[in-house]
TrEMBL record:
Originating organism: Pseudoalteromonas luteoviolacea DSM 6061
Listed name of the protein: Methyltransferase domain-containing protein
Xref: InterPro entries: SAM-dependent_MTases_sf
Any Pfam family: Methyltransf_23
CDD domains: AdoMet_MTases
Length: 200
């Protein structure tokens, strides 16, 4: 995450949380949760990676999953930990270091702030954190290249860009790739690339 992006979220944490907390994400939860191993929810551990307000981690927790969450922004870590009523890890993707710990990793609209030159290493960190046969969900703004939008840096990906990224990650297989409209009101013209990846 660039320093300007980091600064943006630090300065607008509560505003960002308020704007995203009540967005209906169920259509995206469903394929992710269906792809997890066939065990009781209470036996499955999900990481919300770049959790923001903690909205998605809370949704998984309410369904009985074991949930962990992390974010790079201290202000959002505090908001999410209060929402979840549990500690949230303060960490950046580049320094995230867990091994074979999670059945599922949910990286919704968070990896898109990682510089494209860092994406392969960050994806390796997350792949390492997955248990064998674990599933990762990730989403990016649909497009190509890197850009600034206001203070925030974005790395956009399309289907070709995702395929190129995965060439360097042979243990991750794409089990579903699809494009959706933004779930927020009046943002329907913004398209997202969604992917489900399974670790060998």
């Amino acid at each position: 995450m660039s320093e300007s992006t980091f600064h943006y979220y630090s300065q607008h944490a509560q505003e960002f949380a308020d704007a995203t907390l009540n967005v209906d994400m169920q259509p995206l939860y469903t394929p992710f949760l269906q792809a997890l191993q066939d065990k009781p929810n209470s036996q499955l551990h999900i990481l919300d990676a770049g959790c923001g307000s903690g909205r998605d981690a809370l949704a998984f927790k309410k369904q009985g999953f074991q949930v962990s969450a992390m974010d790079a922004c201290p202000e959002l870590v505090e908001i999410a930990s209060n929402l979840l009523n549990q500690p949230v890890q303060h960490a950046r993707f580049e320094s995230f270091n867990h091994v074979d710990e999670f059945d599922g990793i949910w990286a919704c609209a968070s990896l898109l702030h990682v510089a494209q030159s860092n994406l392969p290493r960050v994806m390796q960190n997350l792949e390492q954190a997955l248990k064998p046969k674990g599933v990762m969900y990730a989403s990016f703004k649909h497009g190509q290249g890197e850009r600034m939008h206001g203070e925030r840096h974005f790395s956009d990906l399309d289907e070709k860009g995702l395929a190129q990224l995965l060439e360097g990650l042979p243990s991750l297989d794409a089990i579903k790739v699809w494009v959706t409209e933004d779930r927020r009101p009046r943002r329907e013209n913004e398209l997202w690339l969604n992917c489900l990846l399974r670790k060998d």
